[in-house]
């Protein structure tokens, strides 16, 4: 079958700005490497950089495992020393401003400061001057307080010496650490730079990330995206979402935003598809979505025929009208719930079907040109939602793998089966309730089917 695609919005965005450019500032040992590793899903052995403790701010740190980000590393600011501050100042002046192409600018700064776990100052005069410099150059900054977990551990040790083991030491230690964090970190920061945004990370150096560690990282990614969206021209914020590999909700929102730029708009009567075959429409949607998720997929499994066919096998179930379903599928009694004609699907009662084959009727149907019918609308809605939610499942599976590795067929199989088991039937049922003959004229008039797509994606995404 033809897998030709129409022009892709994701490629257009990346042509204008192929990588998110971050300046990471901080003293050696503050946790910059762990931060890059955890945010962008790369094995640090694949990242090009200088010797530990030594860095050249002009060197572009990149990874073969994730081509959508580049980092510039700067040492922190030691008391009484001005040399590094001047180096950073010159670098920022050369990498900011309207005269610098957006792809070459520093898009955001992560200023990393270790949370003190044995008393002491969190920042020096050089840090405060640097925040003023970034403000003058109009480069957004996130102050990233790292290694908060070490402060919590210190509080636990203090409490263990004073309390009995059956008392709620974990909760009390966290409360005391929070209080100390506000006193030592936030209050001085607010005095020096009242409007600066901050994030706090914890446990990023651990072999497996705890839930609190993941949430702290997700918060940093969210703040980064917000600042880039507010302060940097164009669609660089979408590049920031594509580049990161730690926040699934940001991935979903970025994928939706890319889709809404062209092919999701006016989905029931999409002029963007013109007279293209439905096969071309689906191929375009498929590549647009998989590109936006930016998995480490050197074998291109997500754009291979096998994976495309398995998504089509899901989508064919929701496509035909109720009266045509039996003529499309011979084993209807086994898949009626997945088709969306049965009652709501309970995860423990999902039909145990080893594989769903592509219907010959559906394959032939895809050779038709795009047209305004409920069947076409269900097909397009189903493809967008099914594929996005499979990507969401896959993201969760890969997120737990440390160190990061290339995507495998087993990962994809597990994501497909999890989505089929948990949500496929319910999603198809909702799509059928929305896009049927009785409502199609109203949908055409309202011209906002993409809003229903967004609603269903958000309702059925993995809640982590």
Q: Can you characterise this structure?
A:
It is elongated, with a radius of gyration of 25 Å. Helix 11 packs parallel to helix 16 (409-434) and helix 15 (374-399) runs antiparallel to helix 16. It has 464 residues and is of the alpha/beta class. The two termini are 38 Å apart. The protein has a six-stranded mixed sheet with strand order 2-3-1-4-5-6, with helices on both faces. It is built from 18 helices and six strands. Residues 21-146 form the G domain. One of its GO terms (molecular function) is GTP binding. Keywords: Membrane, Transmembrane, Transmembrane helix. This is G domain-containing protein. The chain crosses the membrane at residues 344-367, 379-401.
Strand content: 5-15%
Annotation, overall tally of beta strands: 6
Distance between the termini: 38 Å
Low-confidence stretches: 346-353
Order of helices and strands: HEHEEHEHEHHEHHHHHHHHHHHH
Q: In which range does the helix fraction lie?
A: 40-55%
Strand order of the largest sheet: 2-3-1-4-5-6
Give the overall shape, derived from the CA principal axes.
elongated
Main sheet: strands, sense, barrel = 6 strands, mixed
- Total count of helical runs of at least 4 residues: 18
Overall mean pLDDT stands at: 90
Calculate Rg over CA atoms: 25 Å
Pairing-aware structural class of the strands and helices? alpha/beta
List keywords for this structure.
about 50% helix, elongated
């Amino acid at each position: 079958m033809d897998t030709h695609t129409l022009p892709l919005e994701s490629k257009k965005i990346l042509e204008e700005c192929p990588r998110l450019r971050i300046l990471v500032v901080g003293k050696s040992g503050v946790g910059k490497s762990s931060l890059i590793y955890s945010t962008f899903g790369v094995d640090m052995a694949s990242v090009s950089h200088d010797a530990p403790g030594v860095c050249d701010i002009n060197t572009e740190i990149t990874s073969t495992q994730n081509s959508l980000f580049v980092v510039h590393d700067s040492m922190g600011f030691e008391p009484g020393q001005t040399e590094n501050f001047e180096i950073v100042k010159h670098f920022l002046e050369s990498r900011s401003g309207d005269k610098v192409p957006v792809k070459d600018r520093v898009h955001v700064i992560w200023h990393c400061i270790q949370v003190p776990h044995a008393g002491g100052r969190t920042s020096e005069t050089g840090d405060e001057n640097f925040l003023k410099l970034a403000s003058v150059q109009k480069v957004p900054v996130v102050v990233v307080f790292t290694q908060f977990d070490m402060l919590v551990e210190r509080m636990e040790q203090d409490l263990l010496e004073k309390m009995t083991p059956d008392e709620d030491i974990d909760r009390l230690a966290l409360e005391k650490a929070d209080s100390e964090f506000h006193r030592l970190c936030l209050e001085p920061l607010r005095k020096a730079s009242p409007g600066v945004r901050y994030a706090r990370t914890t446990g990023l150096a651990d072999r497996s990330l705890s839930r609190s560690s993941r949430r702290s990282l997700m918060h940093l990614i969210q703040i980064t995206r917000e600042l880039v969206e507010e302060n940097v021209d164009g669609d660089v914020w979408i590049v920031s979402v594509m580049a990161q590999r730690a926040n699934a909700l940001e991935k979903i929102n970025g994928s939706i935003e890319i889709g809404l730029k062209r092919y999701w708009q006016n989905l029931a009567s999409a002029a963007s598809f013109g007279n293209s075959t439905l096969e071309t429409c689906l191929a375009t949607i498929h590549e647009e979505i998989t590109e936006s998720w930016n998995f480490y997929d050197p074998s291109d499994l997500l754009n291979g025929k096998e994976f495309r066919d398995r998504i089509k096998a899901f989508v064919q179930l929701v496509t035909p009208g109720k009266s045509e379903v039996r003529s499309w599928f011979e084993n209807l009694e086994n898949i009626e719930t997945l088709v969306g004609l049965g009652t709501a699907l309970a995860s423990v009662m999902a039909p145990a079907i080893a594989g769903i084959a592509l219907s010959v009727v559906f394959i032939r149907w895809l050779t038709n040109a795009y047209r305004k019918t409920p069947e076409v609308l269900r097909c397009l809605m189903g493809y967008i939602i099914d594929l996005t939610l499979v990507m969401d499942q896959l993201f969760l599976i890969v997120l737990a793998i440390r160190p990061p590795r290339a995507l495998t067929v087993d990962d994809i199989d597990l994501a497909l089966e999890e989505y089929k088991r948990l949500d496929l039937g319910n999603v198809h049922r909702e799509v059928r309730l929305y896009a049927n003959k009785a409502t199609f004229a109203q949908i055409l008039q309202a011209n906002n089917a993409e809003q229903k797509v967004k609603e269903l994606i958000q309702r059925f995404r993995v809640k982590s």
